[in-house]
């Protein structure tokens, strides 16, 4: 007889979680807009408040406000151009760091741009941009007489290093998970292919055996139809039985394959 369905959990380590990993993340649209919205509402309103509170003169105020909005808006292009976006946002963060008022809101778009660039494969862009940007900030700050305490410089440097380490760790975990899913998918494909081949062989054996019996019984019936009608009737009965058995086997195989196909389609559409 033909086998039951293959145990998918044994062949797919993600079967216990369904057709998708346990942590799907956000939809693509949310992943695009969430960093933009969060960084915008962290930087822009706080910058407006600080400009109003400390009243920097023209043209510093418009420039500071433009820089506060530039980074979040640049994140809109991070999906297609992660490297250039990381460079632009880093430059905007450096300029924002040097312009008054000092001690403004954190330039959150910089963190999003760094993580996004590393996750999307623009690691060289990110590292070059961060290194050049931080050296430029320290150099220009010294030339412009910006009074940064050494502790602040050390803490900021450590924060940038931790941000890069976090992005790298996140990238490595995502790559390992993608590799595991790919390996599980390939294993499942090979198992399904082997199962199809086994079903095809068994179906061939069943049909070949049944058709051989039908052929023999049909020959006997034709030979004995006039001389021994009872034995001819018996041969016809055997033909009916063999054909019904073969038909039942074929229907069972088709039902199994149809159920397996529907199950696979429903899982891939979850």
UniProtKB/TrEMBL annotation:
Record-annotated Signal transduction histidine kinase subgroup 3 dimerisation and phosphoacceptor domain positions: 195-259
EC assignment: 2.7.13.3
Keywords: ATP-binding, Kinase, Membrane, Nucleotide-binding, Phosphoprotein, Transferase, Transmembrane, Transmembrane helix, Two-component regulatory system
GO molecular function ontology, one term from the record: protein dimerization activity
Keyword Kinase: yes
The keyword Ribonucleoprotein belongs to this UniProt entry's keyword annotation: no
InterPro entries registered for this protein in UniProt: Sensor_HK_TwoCompSys, Sig_transdc_His_kin_sub3_dim/P
GO cellular component, one term: membrane
Catalytic activity: ATP + protein L-histidine = ADP + protein N-phospho-L-histidine
Transmembrane annotation, as ranges: 32-52, 58-78, 125-144, 150-167
Pfam family, one: HisKA_3
Record-given protein name: histidine kinase
